[in-house]
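Onboarding guide, step 5: your first structure request.
Type a short instruction followed by the sequence, for example:

Predict the 3D structure of this protein.
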Amino acid sequence: MSHNHIGPETAKALANFPISGDTFEPILARAYAMVKLAACRMNTKLGYLPNPVSIAIEHACLGIMEGNHDELFITDPFQGGAGTSLNMNLNESIAYLASMEINPAFKPQESIWPVSPIDHVNLHQSTNDTFPSAVKVAILLLLKDLEAAIAMLQEAFQDKEREFASIIKPGRTELQDAVPITLGMEFGAWAEAIGRDRWRIFKSRERIKTLNLGGTAVGTGLGAPRDYILGLTEELKKICGLAISRSENLVDQTQNLDSIVEVSSMNKALAVNLAKIAGDLKLLSSGPDCGFGEITLPDLQKGSSIMPGKINPVMPEAVSQVALKVINDDNLIALASASGQLELNAYLPLIAHTILKDLSMLSNTCRLFAQKCITGIQANIIACQTGVTHSKSLATYLVPVLGYSKVEEIVNTARARGMDIKSTILAEGILNAKQLDDLLSPKRMYRLGFNPQDLIPED
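The system replies with structure tokens like these:
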């Protein structure tokens, strides 16, 4: 629909708030259409909406839900009125589509529409109950998608954990050499962290599923029939297929947005883990000739316009940038949610725009991270083995047998002679080659500590 076909209230919103040039995520309009469809069906059941008006409204809502009319929703997210501009954009868009169905010759410039945005589409509703409910439905739909994306990423790490289980490499603490670890253990730790995010995202859906739908302006249900209020959320549940319910305290759910803040905090926790993992991958793949170089990331694109053959860690860099934005956005959502006054929070459009964008970005990011980075990582076995051999921290394995002071002597001897620890141990006759290889085997690393009886391997 061109701007010549918009309704008068949508036109006012465009004139009043030409601020960012952005629009809401399409999922919000589709979720809002579900709310409008539920209201239409309840009003029809109770005899408040006549045919063919109700049929035309239903067809319009279904088309919007299927994504056929995303171009109709054009209001800027930075808007006053606690979402009234978007609500009227929905009301007028649905009324326009429905009016065209009833009368194909209808012109939006006419003073009387066959289907009224207020008297028909918005019947028994307020922005203050329909907009928050639509936002929560949209969040729930995106959380379901995000959970699937996180599962994909977790499985990608688990696959690499198994693939790299036998590759020993130097551990590092504070970017200094530490005792050896397997590359598989590092990927396993990342899989565990992402697994916790998967659980957190799943559990956060519990907090967001209660709606204030039917509460109208302040949660008292003023202006709506009781039977309509009692049946509306159940009707919406049938439409969206989500485990939603009507809140027992509609005033609370109209006033307070802490459940959205909780979802945002789960997003932040995921972003923190993604940023940490992306940073670790950049370190482990650094070089490749003058850095750690223990893994090779997939070659996705040219790394430099002047340095031939240069490859950059572009996917971890992109992941890091998304993570930083989500972490920052969590503070924005908290501040905006705390700024509500008495019976309503006027900043819900900003909150909705921010959290829906973050959820969409996190889903895309987790999938791309898995598909374009993690699954294609290769281990540089020689670099890993060389690092273990040259690291003086290897001597820590002898502390339980020889004591800290004796092992410190071995380390100092190795440094003075310019030798690695393994060569020094063999030269001093402390262990033979077979004993040393057994002591440093990956199986030992997975035992979690030592048993005194098998501290020194048999010859």
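Each response can be followed by summary notes, for example: The domain at 3-123 is CATH 1.10.275.10 (Fumarase C; Chain B, domain 1).
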